[in-house]
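User: My advisor asked me to double-check a structure prediction for Huntingtin-interacting protein 1-related protein isoform X3 before group meeting. I don't want to rely on an old file, so could you generate it fresh from this sequence?
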Amino acid sequence: MFDYMDCELKLSESVFRQLNTAIAVSQMSSGQCRLAPLIQVIQDCSHLYHYTVKLLFKLHSCLPADTLQGHRDRFHEQFHSLRNFFRRASDMIYFKRLIQIPRLPESPPNFLRASALAEHIKPVVVIPEEAPEDEEPENLIEISTGPPAGEPVVVADLLDQTFGPPNGSMKADRDLQVESLKREVELLRAELEKTKLEARRYVAQLKGQVNALEAELEEQRTQKQKALVDNEQLRHELTQLRAVQQEGVRSQGLLREAERKASATEARYSRLKEKHGELVSTHATLLRKNADTAKQLTVTQQSQEEVARVKEQLAFQMEQVKRESEMKLEEQSDQLERLKRELEAKAGELAHMQEALSRAEQSGSELSSRLDALSAEKDVLSITMRQQEAELLAAQDLAREKEVVLSQEQQRSSRERTELQGQLAEKESQEQGLQQRLLDEQFAMVRGTATEARAILQDAVSLLDDPLHLRCTSSPAYLVSRAQVALDSVSALEKGHAQYLASPEDASALVAALTRFSHLAADAIINGGATSHLAPTDPADRLMDACRECGARALELTGQLQEWQVLPQAQPGLLRFPLQGILQLGQELKPKSLDVRQEELGAMVDKEMAATSAAIEDAVRRIEDMMNQARHASSGLKLEVNERILNSCTELMKAIRLLVTTSTSLQKEIVDSGRGAATQQEFYAKNSRWTEGLISASKAVGWGASQLVESADRVVLHTGKYEELIVCCHEIAGSTAQLVAASKVKADKHSPCLSRLQECSRAVNERAAGVVASTKSGQEQIEDRDTMDFSGLSLIKLKKQEMETQVRVLELEKTLEAERVRLGELRKQHYVLAGGVGTPEEEPSRPTMAPRGATKKPPLAQKPIVAPRQDPQLDGKDGTGPTQLVSS
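Assistant: Sure, here is a fresh prediction for Huntingtin-interacting protein 1-related protein isoform X3 from the sequence you gave:
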């Protein structure tokens, strides 16, 4: 149906695209030919919309709301398109005469609310019925045979064909439309009544169930009250019988009858008491079922409405932010391209001016050389005139003429020189203007870059107080890398600032350094805030203060770079101090286990494996000592129980020792097959995470063995609990599974050592299960079981003890619930720690979403982290149960 609706809407869009909206196309024959198919489209769309709404309401009543999210999104898109199509078609005169187009509501139906189906109104498309055209030929007036009375009929037919039918047919059409609308209203009312009846039937069913439960509860209360009354009557009869027994010296037969009645009464009382207990338990079960049903119904409705509302809000906000970011990016890219083109144009103009200036200087030098030549010629003429003064007396007129010509030439040369000097001054003034313009443009570029950098830094600083940023986290290693890069960019910023002050006509170095610094500093600030979400309170506060100080100084620097008067006083070097503080805090927050040098990992593996073997040997020796002491200090049943527990512990230690030996052999095989030409230390250093996993697993095995021996010692000495041995067995099983998993990571799956290791793991699980079984059987044999003695207790005392026992049961249930909550929190914190230690050090992670409360990885010297086991059955196919491998 959705595909059918899409096809209909695409057809309408293609028709509207071909129309010329500048003219009234609906009044033209060509436009009406294109619009004619849309009548059938309008009819089909109205029916498709109605059936789609009803079908979606049916689906929402049967399926979860999240499953139908895609259907709702697609329906909303089609709803808006269909509403625009109906609105656009209803504005055209062509459709107003032929069809009545329905109007859709302003907003789509809310499918998450079942009652919204009653608000839905089926869109009705009404097409006026056209009067049937008379297909018979026009009646001809026969003058010869037709009577004169036929003329009015012919005239009436002609009038009807020319001016249309009379108003009576239009009224009939309107009546038909009214009747059809009334029928639609009746259908809608019937559907509404049907929906209301279904809702009332469902409510009546629920009320009937509630009334049945209340009636059953009232009946049980009545039976309970009746049982209490019977108990009182029986107690009264028992008192009377005892009085008769005291007076029973007179009749032995009455005494036997009274004893028989008393025994029957006691049996009836015990049966009534059992019935009373069953009624109380049944009553409590029914009350809990009723409350759970009501609570689940309310919570389900609220959660569905809340989830739908939150999803719509998030989708709208995400789309809005995406559009704004795209618009800003396009504007910035256009502005950058425009500035580049203007800079290239200005550079071309400057080159042209410099070329013209060089030509002017060349022409001035030519004139100067010419003037020098004229001066030399004048000197030659003067010397010649003095030498030939006698000869020139005759030719004085000629000499005067030459002098006049020479003076004219001098005047002309002086005028030309003055003009050239004026042109030269004008060119110099133009060059100074261009130089000043270039300086202004360079400073404008610096100021624009500073403004953009200030916006980036302000955005980063604002994220520190943004509630949505509280769930963003980052690792200290990544923060250190970002802070170091930002610290290195400060030197480039200082160099660019100094170059710009020395040569203001070139600001490229300052712009590039400022751009790089703004992005790196913002990245460091954001990652600092994200890292503080995982850090303890005091370091997190100091890290946030350092990030804010860095942002404040960076904003102060960008503000100084925007003003020409204070630009020389800017000091980019002051940014080093807050960045160094962030770097130092990030290094302090790095996991301490990463401080171990990789060269020491190989020696540490051998050391830990040897220490584990020594711990197991010591545990076996201590168990033998404890067995000897138990034989001297105890006897009988206690000696039998202690020997059985210690023997099972000895078997478990032997299995663990064999497992450690096999794991050491497999480890050597892995190192020999994987190191190649490298040394053993280089192999361990190359696979540092795997090496740390082996170290953690071996420490866990040794620690578990020591704890088992201490728990067994306390149990033998009657200062500990049997449950400690069971928990220690679970820990040992988990630790050995961790060691098997760590060894299995790099082992060949066809390796015989690996097969033996898995067999040893299964043997450890079996021995651990044997220890648990021995402990439980010994505990059952030693602990005394109190037998309940009800002799000598009256009804009131029994009722009192019953109430006290119920109070004790409630207290123990509350304590059990609290301990379960505490156990859940401990396991949650354990998994957080286990997740923290598994972070690789070679690749610092980008900021990720993680719960606040994740802490740092514990150092290698601490107790290894092993996930607790909840399943008491310690069996597995290859020894790798639900235990979590912390270090890998």
